[in-house]
Amino acid sequence: MNSKKSILITGAAGFLGSHLCDRFIREGFLVIGMDNFITGDKKNISHLEHHSNFRFIEHDVTEFIKIDENLDYILHFASPASPIDYLKIPIQTLKVGSLGTHNLLGLAKAKRARILVASTSEVYGDPLVHPQPESYFGNVNSIGPRGVYDEAKRFQESITMAYHRFHGLDVRIVRIFNTYGPRMRLNDGRVIPAFMGQVLRGEDLTVFGDGLQTRSFCYVDDQIEGIFRLLFSDYSYPINIGNPNETTILDFAKEIISLGNSTQKIVYKPLPQNDPLQRQPDITLAKKLLNWQPKIHREQGMKITFDYFKGLTQEELYKKEH
Ligand code: NAD
Ligand code: UDP
Fold first, then answer.
1. Residue ranges of the alpha helices (H) in the chain?
2. Ligand 2 pocket, mutate which of 175, 191, 205, 247 (most atoms under 8 A from CB)
3. Membrane-spanning regions, if any (predicted)?
4. How far is the C-alpha of 249 from the C-alpha of 247, rounded, in Å?
5. 148 Cα distance to chain centroid
6. CB 131, CB 282: distance < 8 Å
């Protein structure tokens, strides 16, 4: 019998999922990665292909999931995560947050595994409370274009808590705030790859609205550490993991222009509907319960990420998706 702990990671070929696979392999786990590649990329996990502690299953988690071996833990990270992606595939987004989560909770129950689900700062919608503590109920437009993501994630939290309360399932819920780093898809439309791609292609930077809306960006290694600590904590309610260092999108565009030593202009485009005006995590709870706080400064994380995008091929740099 194998004494190693086993973990199923959904969304394994995506940005966060692939970093989680790396972390749990490093920690000596048997990792089963699962993905249907709808927004992910095989390249993100190709280095794990022949690893003896890694197995990959291509599967859509909204369909029944059959795993023969024992499972100790499940991390449910499958879901489109960028506004452009979830506007393009709204039904799949709703399905993976609802049906997909239901399947994974059922699997966790059958295997008596602990499950951690990836929620999001989007459950707070366009927040009226700033910064956002976990106790804030949010301000979401259920029928707006972003509603497909926000409500799927709110449902995900509800059904996860229902399995916890009704079935006694061991659950964890992380509310992830904007996270960035290597392996983001250059064309996924999120602001960091979008601006970095524009700098690298010599294009003007597209700031939506007046650029005075804010975000707080967390480097991926910090995010993974927070998720890791949450999984092994004994806290079953949602917890914010993000970096409280808040900036306007306009200042951020200027930062990326200077990072590339470039001379590009900023051009203004309409602000997408229901785009949150302010976002900053209150991480008091994570500090207290997980003894966690971000360590990587934006300057350092941005440099690593920019160098990653610089390493892409010309074909990848100019690939058009939207
Ligand atoms: P990503 O798009 O890079 O990765 C998501 C992965 O899930 C992709 O590989 C995709 O192919 C896979 N997937 C989607 N639907 C699937 C399905 N039905 N079956 C199997 N696989 C499926 O996105 P990401 O940034 O890595 O986000 C991962 C998770 O973290 C998501 O649940 C997202 O909502 C959450 N999250 C991320 C951020 C962030 O800033 N990166 C912020 C908040 C929440
Ligand atoms: N944004 C922008 N230009 C772009 C892409 C995004 O100004 O080319 C803005 C977007 O309107 C939002 C912020 O950057 O206010 C962050 O967008 P992103 O898609 O990264 O994530 P969100 O936090 O909105 O989910």
1. 15-26, 83-88, 90-95, 101-111, 147-167, 191-201, 220-231, 249-259, 284-290, 298-310, 314-318
2. 191
3. none
4. 6
5. 16
6. yes
Q: Which residues contact 208 (CB under 8 A, 6 or more apart)?
A: 249, 268, 269, 270, 271, 272, 275
Rounded distance from Cα 189 to ligand 1 centre (Å): 14
Whether the bond between 131 and the residue before it is cis, its omega within 30 degrees of 0, is yes
Q: Give ∠ CA 84-85-86 in degrees, rounded to 5.
A: 95
The model's pLDDT over 202-220, given as tens digits with 9 standing for 90+, comes to 999 999 999 999 999 999 9
- Catalytic residue (one of 86, 124, 149, 219): 149
By alpha-carbon position, which residue is closest to atom 33 of ligand 1?
Answer: 81
Phi, psi of 18 (to 5 degrees): -70, -35
Q: Is 192 in the pocket of ligand 1 (CB under 6 A)?
A: no
Nearest-angstrom CA–CA distance, 32 and 56: 6
CA of 62 to the centre of ligand 2 (A): 28
Distance 95 CA to ligand 1 centre (A): 13
Nearest CA to ligand 1 atom 35: 118
Instruction: Give catalytic status of residue 149 as yes or no.
Output: yes
* Amino acid (1-letter code) at residue 237: Y
Question: Distance between terminal CA atoms of the chain?
Answer: 48
Q: Residue 299 in contact with residue 258, Cβ under 8 Å?
A: no
Handedness of CA 222, 300, 124, 17 (dihedral sign): negative
- Assigned token pair, 204: 């003007």
Q: What is the pLDDT of residues 5-62, one digit of tens each?
A: 999 999 999 999 999 999 999 999 999 999 999 999 999 999 999 999 999 999 999 9
pTM of the full structure: 0.97
